[in-house]
Amino acid sequence: MPTPDVNVLDDPPQIGSRAVPPGLGRYLAIYAAFWRNSLVREMGFKINFILWIVVEMLWFGLQLTFMAVIYSHTDRIASWTKWQVVLLVGANHFVQQLFTALFMNNCVKLSENVRSGGLDFMLLMPVNARFLISLRHVDFGAFVNAASAVAVMVYAGVQLGLQPSVVQLVGAAVLLLLGLSIHYSVMYILACISFWTVRAQGIVWGYYNLFQLARLPDEAFRGMFRMIFTFVVPVLLVTNVPVKVLLEKLSSWSEMAWLGGMSVAIFWLSEAFWRWSVRHYGSASS
Amino acid sequence: MSKYWHVINIGIQSTLVYRVNFLVRALFGLVPLFALILLWRAIYEGAKGPDVGGYQLSEVITYYLMVNVVVALTAVTEDDWQIAADIRDGRISQFLLKPIDYLKYRLCLFAAGRMVYTAAALVPMGVFLWFQRDHLQAPASAGHFAAFGLALALTALLQFFISFTMALLAFWVLEVATFIFILFAFEYVAGGHLFPLDMLPPTLLKVLHLTPFPYMLYFPVRVYLGRVEGAELWQGLGIQAFWVLATLGLARWVWSRGLRHYSAVGG
């Protein structure tokens, strides 16, 4: 019997011809299907796939060039030396590329789905709608770029003579993932604005601009600017805190606590806003 | 000629729809600009003298402010995507049948789009410039300002013709976005968007000046700062005019080649 993509109600949900286990296993199986579909789609345009990797590499190179030019005229920005900043730029690129790989396209597409009424279909599926909306498309090229970012980080670490302990490495990795979750939650909130103004894509891309802040050393900023981007939209925490863990530059433990606390708080806020937004969804065109 | 005034008129009306979008974009764009200014302040505080890479703090800040003004006035934002889409979807067929020149038509729409964008960005940009007024230098003289205006107009034409030509790649390939982004990346660094180009090693700077990129942004900003004078100024404007004519010629040539290749899909 041919089955629809995801079956409804009585029968256990199936993907293709595979029976899907219940609970968390079910979600993992669905997520694996997302990866398969995305991979098939990407491989349909191989040259384009490679060209996008080239584009992202160029932008990464640009950021590094900028720092190289600055450091050809000065020794330090606040207390940050050249290779410390390279490590920071690398870490930021890593988080940004992971975000692009897993979430970016999905967040941008939400406003399209609100406009076209395609969201109706997703809301009707017997899975968590936010799961479906957030994770459906995977951008594989971005993983390649994330790997190049790791290579740059390792090189900078060698230049600095860093010998991080296992605790430091694991800590930095966990903190980077918390930072990733901050980017995702903020972007999801902004994408939800499309329930009111149809043209939310501009806002979503606008936040992408703010990503740039995360690759600058937080010490360069002070006053209102630093307060806002630490405590309200904490982009300055996202990469600075994990990199400071590696460099042993952390001024106090509270910085890590803030990053963790903010990532939980903003995720909760995004979930609340999402639920409230869906209640205002009037559907379009259907 | 009057028909092209109508195009500008229509262009203004249809881009006015996006005024809030433009405003949001201008506002978000100010945050990285402000961050960059703060970063440079931190650099100057740690520097040994008042001079970093041949620039004083006020000059660097003015440089970045003027970069953003020039970009707001001259950068191509949506036009290249639209041109590529027109070709891909076969919408240019109608222009081949009408007594209207597609390049001039797009140029009018570009001008209209920039006018609306500038109007939308005027308030946030103006407020921002006011807050930075301690460091915003006035143009060196009225003459410099006039030369800046001329260089600005040439920059806009150069930006447009290059983007137009890139978009015409849509005659041959389905997806032009990557090519446009690759060019944009080069323009971003070689045009002086990221940092003043004379902070680069002199040989590299000489090589860059053989390309059109410095004339797409860096040159008008330098003219504003009064860093180009006398014969060098006239020479620079001459080279800029040369690139404008060269890219126009290239755009016309690629267009005629493209039309031979054009199969009016979906048109």
SSE succession of chain A: EEHHEEHHHHHHHHH
Number of domains of chain A: 2
Low-confidence regions of chain B: none
Calculate the terminal CA-CA distance of chain A, rounded to whole Å: 29 Å
Mean pLDDT of chain A: 86
Helix run count of chain B: 11
What kind of assembly state do the chains in view correspond to? heterodimer
Number of separate domains of chain B: 1
Number of strands of chain B: 0
How would you concisely characterize the structure shown here?
Chain A has 286 residues and is an all-alpha fold. Chain A is 70% helix and 3% strand. In chain A, a hairpin with a 2-residue loop joins β3 and β4.
Question: What do these coordinates show?
Answer:
- The complex is a heterodimer of chains A (286) and B (267).
- With 286 residues, chain A is mostly helical.
- Chain A has eleven helices and four strands, in the order ββααββααααααααα.
- Chain A folds into two domains: 1-44, no CATH class; 46-279, no CATH class.
- In chain A, the strands form two sheets. In chain A, strands 1-2 form a two-stranded antiparallel sheet. In chain A, strands 3-4 form a two-stranded antiparallel sheet.
- In chain A, strand 1 (14-15) and strand 2 (18-19) form a beta hairpin.
- Chain A is globular and about 55 Å long.
- Chain B has 267 residues and is mainly α.
- Chain B has one domain (2-261).
- Chain B is 72% helix and 0% strand.
- Chain B contains eleven helices and no strands.
- Chain B is globular.
